[in-house]
Design goal:
The protein has a single domain (11-139), classed as AhpD-like, CATH 1.20.1290.10. The chain has 145 residues and is mainly α. It has helices at 6-9, 11-30, 35-49, 52-64, 69-74, 86-100, 116-139. The two termini are 25 Å apart. It is built from 7 helices and no strands. The protein is globular.
Length: 145
């Protein structure tokens, strides 16, 4: 199989994803979504998509923003722990629903903890994170110690 770095072979498309990522970051900030929650969603989407590059990057980013190692250790099973607030649980459930494309739509996460603006921003975050995961995995971005 030919390995191609998608960010270099079609840099115009890559720049468009970067621009979309920036717009989503603005929507998240405007909706009042906490930076640590953004990193938790990025991690969970990356876990579901099997992207080691993004997992390492966003774990480091989360730690820099003050996230705890305990919460990072259990984010893969967030629904089973008591580490996360109602809003965080709602955001993680929403991100999973968007990532897995659940049909019919499951709304166990929809307990009113998120505003409509936050639902939109977190949905877009999960969509864009899925794009980043696919770019990194398909491009075989290196993940070495």
């Amino acid at each position: 199989m030919t390995t191609v770095n998608l960010s270099k072979t079609n840099s115009a498309a890559y720049r468009q994803v970067l621009e979309l990522d920036g717009q989503v970051a603005e929507a998240l900030a405007s909706a009042g979504v906490d930076e640590k929650l953004v990193e938790l969603v990025k991690l969970r989407v990356s876990q579901l998509n099997g992207c080691a590059f993004c997992l390492r990057m966003h774990t480091r980013d989360a730690l820099k923003k003050g996230e705890t190692t305990d919460r990072l250790a259990v984010v893969a099973a967030w629904w089973e722990s008591q580490y996360f607030t109602a809003q965080e649980r709602a955001a993680l459930g929403l991100a999973e629903e968007v990532t897995k494309m659940a049909v019919p739509e499951g709304t166990e996460w929809d307990d009113g903890s998120l505003t409509p603006e936050q639902v939109s921003a977190i949905s877009w975050l999960a969509i864009v994170m899925g794009v980043w995961n696919r770019i990194a995995v398909r491009s075989h971005f290196p993940v070495a110690p």
